[in-house]
Amino acid sequence: MSQVQDLLTPIPDAYYTDERAAIQEMAREFALKEVLPIANQLDPEKGEIPPALRQKLGELGFFGLLIPEKYGGLGLGVFEYCLVTEELSRAWMSVASIIARANMIGPEDFLEMPVDHPKERLAQMARGEFLGSYAMSEPGAGSDIAGIRCRADLDGDEWVINGQKMWATFALGSDFIVLVARTEPYDAANRHAGIRQFYIPKQPGSFPDGIEGTAMRKIGYHGWRTWELSFDNYRIPKEYLIGHKRKLEGDDGFKRTAQFMAVPRVHTAARAIGLARGALEDSLQYAQERVQFEKRISDFQYTRFRIADMATKVEAARALTYSVANDADQGVMRAREAAMAKLFASEIAEEVTSNALQIYGGAGYTTEYPIERYWRDARLTKIFEGTSEIQMKIISDSLLPRAPRS
Q1: CATH number for the domain including 310?
Q2: What is the pLDDT of residues 177-190, one digit of tens each?
Q3: Active site residues
Q4: I want to staple 377 with a disulfide (CB 3.0 to 4.6 A). Which of 2, 93, 103, 169 is the partner?
């Protein structure tokens, strides 16, 4: 284990504080001692994250990293969020992901919702006791937010919602759903208009009347279930429109949804780095234990050079992610660089985990080792929170005149 521990890269001096170092070490120890054994047991069985583990995450404050102190959170920044995420993802990406369920709706927006004791609810979010899920993607609209067709029509004092949603992870277990829907008819000439976000309260373990859910069969991202949702004349009060006290017009809702994706993309970069680092650390240890031709495989030059390449890419991805996270905490969320971080980290995560599996050989293609889990989950990081292709579009559109629509 000493060889593994040595790969806990110190926080660069430019970003270092004693508090950040303590948070990183705490998350590292918790991930290796508490999360990894559970992941190794439950992921092959497609088991769900135990409530006791969620409670421990809450006690450590991981759900409340981004929630202001006045609402019961730690009031920290995106940088600390990434530090904790990387360590948790090194053990099980699903656990690194569930802490984001306390950030589905901002505190100021939540306080506008007509819910009982909203400040206490926010404190519950910070403890991991009141969590949300996000329903944006559809069968015909994934990364293309402007292609959303799910409708919300105002009928008196209520919104009536009809349509389909896909990839709503944790929708059944959540206490509420943030829904992205369209309040105006789809117009190909103005695709961004009328997109809004809605707050949908629910009881964990069930869906309200008017909403049906079908669990999706996945090859990875186990520990919780992902749902296809069907809305059939589902009604909510008109005050459940997020931001309803501010007059929303034109493409404000689209911009809001697109801006919401920036922090999740940095979060995904940190998740990808954690997966890649887990695979790298395990490969280092395995390569020094595995003997072929009367030599440790770590003594073969190709293995050594492969590991050097893996380590370099992990460090490069981390450096970019740290830079973007630090800027976000200074009040500047760089959308282009956030897309770059997500793109690069997810691409190298698939490459690094695949190379790690190759180092393990046939053993890596079994569920006896967590390498195959890192590999499966790394593949997903190139898809969710905007595919690699969408990140390249964001980046290229910021550097070049936009290509004309056909």
Answers
A1: 1.20.140.10
A2: 999 999 998 888 88
A3: 385
A4: 93
